[in-house]
Design brief:
It contains 8 helices and 20 strands. It is α+β, with helices and mostly antiparallel strands. The protein is elongated.
Length: about 350
């Protein structure tokens, strides 16, 4: 069932506007692959090119060894799940799930068996005789997913399938989708602008901006070692700080605006005095009032207690603001206005060129 998807030098144009200038990627058989990025970045456009709903102005698209550029969407053996569910309002749950199977002209007993199987898989079998209007949003999306999977497609395509659901349902549905995809092993391409959702379900993620893939990697790799400032700010939260590089023999350091110096053993392609942009995740910036060495200094503006963690917003000595996440303490939360010292976890922070376009970390 699973198939490799290969895209070579894809180009998409709308008149004179180039939505995707030159894009190549390979999605592994059975992989849950997510296209992630802000609105207008080209992720849905690319998904629709894979589906056959958009024309292709350049490049080649393959399912396995099969070139699909000019193949009719109905012959690509894909399952599609849309943001707005797109199930038939006049058909019961059972008839919706069976729709694609009837189009394949399968025997009635096979249609019933597969319909029952996928209704049970999606936990909607008890609603088999209901019309969609009698279902919640989450139940309707389960019907759409069951219908897409029942035809046993080679590729499952999902375009922001959870964006119309409330927060609790989104978490429930993303868990269900990931579990079912794991069980079936179907090659899946998923589109979302929600980075938390992408991190939760994906084997790998392609972060896109302006029709260009900025980085492809596992959720862990993208979060811990982003390729540039865009990825660092789009995946999770981060504090961006200016610094300069200090090189003395084989030793390399970064020096923040207040003189706080951090030894960095993993920098590459840097020169003495080079200006850099430093990305420090909130959990990588640590309040350390006992620090006797160098540190960043600042004043707590306000805090938010969130049970396990407490979030602090601190104004640094140079006037910039930084966010800190630290484990909540038994004793009191640090009061607003308190002067604090902060150190960074040198092995975890990321350093980019001054323009943010390239990482300088090995």
């Amino acid at each position: 069932m699973d198939v490799r998807i290969t895209i070579n030098d894809a180009v998409k144009k709308y008149g004179d506007f180039v939505a995707i200038p030159d894009l190549s990627l390979e999605i592994q058989p059975g992989e849950f692959f997510t296209l992630l990025g802000p609105s207008g970045c080209g992720k849905t456009t690319l998904l629709r090119m894979i589906a056959g709903f958009n024309s292709i102005e350049g490049g080649k698209f393959y399912f396995g060894e099969r070139l699909i550029n000019d193949l009719d969407p109905s012959k690509r053996n894909i399952g599609m799940v849309f943001q707005n569910y797109a199930i038939f309002p006049h058909l019961t749950v059972r008839k919706n799930v069976a729709f694609g199977l009837k189009n394949k002209k399968l025997p009635k007993d096979q249609i019933k068996a597969k319909t029952d199987e996928f209704m049970a898989l999606m936990k909607i079998d008890e609603y088999a005789d209901r019309l969609p209007e009698k279902l919640s949003g989450g139940q309707q999306q389960r019907v759409a997913l069951a219908r897409a999977l029942a035809i046993e497609p080679e590729v499952l395509l999902m375009d922001e399938p959870l964006s119309n659901l409330d927060a609790k349902l989104r978490v429930e549905m993303r868990t269900a989708i990931k579990e079912i995809q794991n069980r079936l092993g179907i090659t899946t391409v998923y589109v979302t602008h929600d980075q938390e959702e992408a991190m939760a379900v994906s084997d790998r993620i392609a972060v896109m901006n302006l029709g260009v893939i900025q980085q492809i990697g596992t959720p862990k790799a993208l979060y811990q070692r982003p390729a540039n400032r865009f990825v660092a700010t789009f995946i999770g939260r981060t504090n961006l700080m200016d610094a300069i590089v200090k090189v003395s023999g084989a030793e390399k350091c970064i020096v923040f605006n207040n003189g706080y110096t951090v030894k960095m053993d993993n920098l590459t392609d840097v020169t003495d005095g080079q200006k850099v942009c430093v990305s420090v995740r909130p959990e990588e910036l640590v309040i350390d009032t006992t620090s006797e060495g160098g540190s960043l200094t600042g004043k707590v503006l306000y805090s938010t207690f969130l049970g396990l963690n407490t979030h602090y917003v601190v104004e640094l000595s140079d006037g910039t603001r930084a966010e800190i996440i630290q484990e909540s303490q038994i004793d009191d939360i640090i009061e607003n206005g308190t002067e604090v010292k902060m150190v960074v976890k040198a092995e975890k922070i990321n350093v980019f060129t001054e323009d943010g376009e390239k990482t300088l970390v090995k």
